Amino acid sequence: CPVINCGRVYDNASLLEGHLKRFDHSPCDPTINVRGCPSNLFACVSCGQQFQTEEAWRKHLEVSSLVTDGHSIEQTPQWIVCFACPDCYLLFNLRDECLQHMSAKKHFTESFPMNDTRGGAMPVPVSQYVKNRLIALCKDVTFNVRCSLCHKVLTSHQAAQAHFNVHCRQGCAVATSNKTVAQVVKQLQVRGQCSLCCKIFHSPAEIERHRESTQHVVEVNQTMAKALLQHCRFSEKHHGHAERKRLSGSPERPFQKRNKGRECGESSGKRRRLRGNSVAVWFCECGLQFSEEATATNHLLAVNQIFHQCAVCGKQMGEPSITRLHMSRFHGGAHLSNFLFYCRKCKVEMPRYEDILAHVAEAHSGHTFLTDCEVPEELADSKPSTS
């Protein structure tokens, strides 16, 4: 990209042209170097060790839980999907790519040095949760694109072209943002945590105040990797407590309604014919009726602004068939199923279909579940209900 401080690089001119038209030149984007498939490691939240498989992590936990050092058999692993430069906190799918970046940019210092001073700065493992949270926070950071000569704010690609063609022919576009990626990461840095109170602390002063007021033992994190893991761990705990509280007055979760037919082995993408002249139809929470589950599911994803996002170049598409065609044409067909589910409303991405459905149920409203009902065949072909 020719815009100074943008830093984005594309494999071909058509992708660059699309980026220029979108005019998304924020320097506060941690994903500009993310290429290819994500890493797939499992991290222990107690000690920070990483494992190639979930089974290896489970064996580690079974052995370590016998020792009173914070490990518990009830813990869940954190899925490590990428690595961050310890200086600028740009993300890379592979650790070796991050090391190459650090060497090229001479980023051998840590933006947030902590208590562990052993060795030099190394890539920081980043979980899926932290990656999603960081992306969402960075998207909220405002940025401007200005002319390098007259400092006029340029609001679109067309406006920039017109400005440099007519006014400042020797000028260029410069992007600036209110915060850097590293400054945003600071919000996720957990300096310590109290397991008794289920609280996290973001400064030594907070830790000291809690110790003095409660006499509790606060565990202090020694590395940034551990600090981010604890952010995941306690955020998920708080989310779980809030979810249980929300569901305490509700007899069933929205997506349990949707999955009843599947549990009975009756699920099908096509219309299901039942006894007599009855058929199964699907209703969205909004009242719309669909004769096929696939159509109902497409409605649910579309109305909640859920898109398929190419994991290679980041392009977003509405249909899986278009996504696979894109992968085949632009990426050689090597990763036909290598796409994520992206929520444009909340600016989060999820690796699995089940995860994005759970996100919709928890964070959205109005179109959060489907129910299948038995109706007479003549009513199934009537116009959708809007009641």
TrEMBL record:
Protein biosynthesis as UniProt keyword: no
Protein's UniProt keywords contain Repeat: yes
UniProt cross-references to SMART domains, sorted A to Z: ZnF_C2H2 (SM00355)
Matching InterPro entries: Zf-C2H2_ZNF451_1st, Zf-C2H2_ZNF451_5th, Znf-C2H2_ZNF451, Znf_C2H2_type
GO molecular function, one term: RNA polymerase II transcription regulatory region sequence-specific DNA binding
Domain C2H2-type stretches: 1-30
Keyword annotations: Metal-binding, Repeat, Zinc, Zinc-finger
UniProt-annotated stretches for the region Disordered: 239-270
Domain of life: Eukaryota
GO cellular component: nucleus
PANTHER family: BLOODY FINGERS-RELATED, KRAB AND ZINC FINGER DOMAIN-CONTAINING
The protein, known as: C2H2-type domain-containing protein
